[in-house]
């Protein structure tokens, strides 16, 4: 199936009350793992890679493989730049064939975030590429108690941002956190519902790793249409390598990578089964 825009995927998710998994990949093994599970479970898919990995990964080559992989699948796939911070990074992704880009200006002032997101949206839309913006600061906290009300986006602010920028999706801070943190989640479902009733675009959850199935279900019912998973895939890969080397220190690279792929597939499958997206690609 040909690549689609993320706008197409999320509009359907919003209509049919499920969440598309936004899985960040970083090599051929993780790419293959995510696509194979999406095929197995017949789920729509957002394949992502964040701009911060540009310095570590040959993204131009990897994105070509992502496009080829998506074209060979029987499920709809959007190729997405996750957390683009610079104009140059966003433009590279568009040139490489991404069908969706995110501009993350959440650490900027509201006015600067609005201005830069609006300009990127204008350019991307002229090229048929969808855009995700972000409001509220979804940072990296060591302790869940550090996430407070001031970090969460307010409905009137979100309405103005969406209206002015014309983004296709909005990542909102409602109590999740990027990376690994100690303590349970602190999701504000009432705020999420308010946002869903205030803005007319699909809402996105970042920092979606390690929540409970009940949290995912409640988030979807409250308006979330895409849930980003990155940290847990990386952790699963690392844990798999450590476990294999503990059993056999002379294990070669080919064996380790085949086991990494299996470990990541197990992780991805677990999340997809919690997102109500199974068989939605049929």
UniProtKB/TrEMBL annotation:
<dbReference type="InterPro" id="IPR050246">
    <property type="entry name" value="Class_II_FBP_aldolase"/>
</dbReference>
<dbReference type="InterPro" id="IPR000771">
    <property type="entry name" value="FBA_II"/>
</dbReference>
<feature type="binding site">
    <location>
        <position position="83"/>
    </location>
    <ligand>
        <name>Zn(2+) 1</name>
    </ligand>
</feature>
<dbReference type="GO" id="GO:0004332">
    <property type="term" value="F:fructose-bisphosphate aldolase activity"/>
</dbReference>
<feature type="active site" description="Proton donor">
    <location>
        <position position="82"/>
    </location>
</feature>
<feature type="binding site">
    <location>
        <position position="179"/>
    </location>
    <ligand>
        <name>dihydroxyacetone phosphate</name>
    </ligand>
</feature>
<dbReference type="GO" id="GO:0005975">
    <property type="term" value="P:carbohydrate metabolic process"/>
</dbReference>
<feature type="binding site">
    <location>
        <position position="134"/>
    </location>
    <ligand>
        <name>Zn(2+) 2</name>
    </ligand>
</feature>
<keyword id="KW-0862">Zinc</keyword>
<feature type="binding site">
    <location>
        <position position="178"/>
    </location>
    <ligand>
        <name>Zn(2+) 1</name>
    </ligand>
</feature>
<protein>
    <submittedName>
        <fullName>Putative fructose-bisphosphate aldolase</fullName>
        <ecNumber>4.1.2.13</ecNumber>
    </submittedName>
</protein>
<keyword id="KW-0479">Metal-binding</keyword>
<keyword id="KW-0456">Lyase</keyword>
<feature type="binding site">
    <location>
        <begin position="207"/>
        <end position="209"/>
    </location>
    <ligand>
        <name>dihydroxyacetone phosphate</name>
    </ligand>
</feature>
<dbReference type="InterPro" id="IPR013785">
    <property type="entry name" value="Aldolase_TIM"/>
</dbReference>
<dbReference type="Pfam" id="PF01116">
    <property type="entry name" value="F_bP_aldolase"/>
</dbReference>
<feature type="binding site">
    <location>
        <position position="104"/>
    </location>
    <ligand>
        <name>Zn(2+) 2</name>
    </ligand>
</feature>
<feature type="binding site">
    <location>
        <begin position="228"/>
        <end position="231"/>
    </location>
    <ligand>
        <name>dihydroxyacetone phosphate</name>
    </ligand>
</feature>
<dbReference type="GO" id="GO:0008270">
    <property type="term" value="F:zinc ion binding"/>
</dbReference>
<feature type="binding site">
    <location>
        <position position="206"/>
    </location>
    <ligand>
        <name>Zn(2+) 1</name>
    </ligand>
</feature>
């Amino acid at each position: 199936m040909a690549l689609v825009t993320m706008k197409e995927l999320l509009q359907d998710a919003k209509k049919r009350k499920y969440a598309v998994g936004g899985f960040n990949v970083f090599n051929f093994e993780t790419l293959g793992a995510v696509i194979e599970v999406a095929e197995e479970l017949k789920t729509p898919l957002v394949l992502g890679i964040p701009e911060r990995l540009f310095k570590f990964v040959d993204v131009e080559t990897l994105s070509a493989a992502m496009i080829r992989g998506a074209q060979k699948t029987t499920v709809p796939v959007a190729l997405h730049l996750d957390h683009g911070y610079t104009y140059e990074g966003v433009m590279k992704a568009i040139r490489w064939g991404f069908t969706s880009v995110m501009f993350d200006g959440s650490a900027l002032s509201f006015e600067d975030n609005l201005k830069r997101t609006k300009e990127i949206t204008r350019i991307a839309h002229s090229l048929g590429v969808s855009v995700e913006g972000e409001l509220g600061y979804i940072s990296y906290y060591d302790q869940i108690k550090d996430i407070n009300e001031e970090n969460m986006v307010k409905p009137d602010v979100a309405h103005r941002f969406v209206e002015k920028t014309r983004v296709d999706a909005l990542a909102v801070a409602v109590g999740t956190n990027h990376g690994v943190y100690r303590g349970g989640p602190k999701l504000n479902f009432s705020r999420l519902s308010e946002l869903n009733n205030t803005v007319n675009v699909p809402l996105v959850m970042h920092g979606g790793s390690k929540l409970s199935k009940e949290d995912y279900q409640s988030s979807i019912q409250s308006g979330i249409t895409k849930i980003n998973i990155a940290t847990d895939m990386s952790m699963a890969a690392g844990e798999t390598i450590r476990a294999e080397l503990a059993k056999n220190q002379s294990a070669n690279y080919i064996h380790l990578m085949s086991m990494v792929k299996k470990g990541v597939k197990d992780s991805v499958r677990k999340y997809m089964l919690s997102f109500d997206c199974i068989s939605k690609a049929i």
